[in-house]
Design brief:
single chain; alpha/beta; TIM Barrel; 3 domains; 5-stranded parallel sheet; 3-stranded antiparallel sheet; 48% helix; globular
């Protein structure tokens, strides 16, 4: 349906929901909708069909319900069959997103993904961030991104030495600043080709949306009004966008302006880090651009400890 209706040629498979190995959670305000979802087979908490929960909802003790997806389980045979089925339907590019589970699932994603000839594998480290899972799962579940990426590199090296093609990899998991993205690209080189950001891009969008509401109400908080009292004063990139879009600027929500402004800031920050490390293309960023500040970080990642990094080159200069 998706392929034919929307004429798409790329689809993403998911093991779990982002960095958590459960389905995504959404809030449901209506008991009728919650009941409908339960009838469809979703896990709904609390159960909207129980008499006591109906009574609690009527009395407003229960104000909303949580919808959870059913659990998925992965086997090599079923995964490869599903990829073949999707290719048969007409999808040209197939990707997989998996998360911060254990070394076993990471190995499965890399090995099965290589065998299935996936175009992209997205690996999502802990903690979660976009709010589509329960707080305990978001905060406490899984392998933190630094450790997960260290394992990923180790496993990719092992597969590569066997002559196995590794799918392009994207790292996710708490990235919000250009220095973190630079480190992820460098640390995962040559396997990591991209970094995914969720919360980091959502925040400027939400801030922009809030500013738009406050401006309409004439109620800018002091934390914002110190930067200006109009959109053109508050957003650094507003004039740039106005020059490009002219009269259409009034139709662009300030949430979008916030995201664009953040991306411009991010771009310049990346350019500065790349210039400092003498990388003028993303593809040249490598593990040689990093050093570990602690011996423990060096042991985990394989990146040279700061007191050892570049020592061979330094000694050559001293001995000339």
């Amino acid at each position: 349906y998706v392929s034919s209706k929307h004429n798409l040629d790329t689809i993403e498979l998911k093991w779990g929901q982002g960095a958590k190995c459960i389905g995504g959670e959404i809030k449901v305000k209506s008991i009728e909708r919650a009941t409908e979802l339960k009838k469809r087979g979703y896990v709904v908490s609390p159960d909207p069909t129980l008499k006591e929960n109906k009574t609690a909802f009527e009395k407003r003790a229960i104000k909303e319900f949580e919808r959870h997806s059913r659990l998925g389980f992965v086997t090599k045979e079923a995964f490869l069959e599903e990829v073949d089925r999707l290719r048969g339907i007409g999808f040209k590019r197939i990707t997989l997103k998996t998360g911060a589970y254990s070394a076993i699932e990471l190995a499965m994603a890399l090995r099965y993904g290589a065998e299935a000839k996936l175009d992209l594998l997205t690996i999502d480290g802990a903690p979660g961030g976009t709010g589509m899972s329960p707080w305990p799962m978001m905060n406490e579940w899984g392998i933190p991104t630094f450790y997960l990426q260290s394992l990923m590199y180790k496993y990719c090296e092992k597969l590569s030495k066997k002559g196995i093609r590794i799918p392009d990899i994207a790292m996710a998991g708490g990235f919000s600043s250009e220095d973190g993205v630079f480190k992820a690209l460098a640390m995962g080189s040559p396997y990591v080709k991209a970094v995914c950001m969720g919360r980091g891009l959502m925040i400027p969008g939400m801030v922009g949306k809030n500013i738009e509401s406050w401006l309409a109400e004439g109620n800018l908080p002091n934390s914002v009004s110190k930067y200006g009292n109009s959109a053109s004063e508050i957003f650094v990139a507003y004039a740039e966008l106005e020059e490009k879009y002219g009269s259409k600027m009034k139709d662009i929500p300030l949430g979008a302006v916030g995201i664009y402004t953040y991306c411009q800031k991010f771009k310049v920050g990346m350019q500065q880090l790349m210039a400092g490390s003498r990388n003028f293309r993303l593809s040249t960023i490598s593990r040689k651009d990093l050093m570990a500040l602690t011996e423990e970080a060096s042991k985990i990642s394989g990146i040279p400890y700061v007191m050892d990094a570049y020592s061979e080159e330094a000694n050559k200069i001293l001995e000339e």
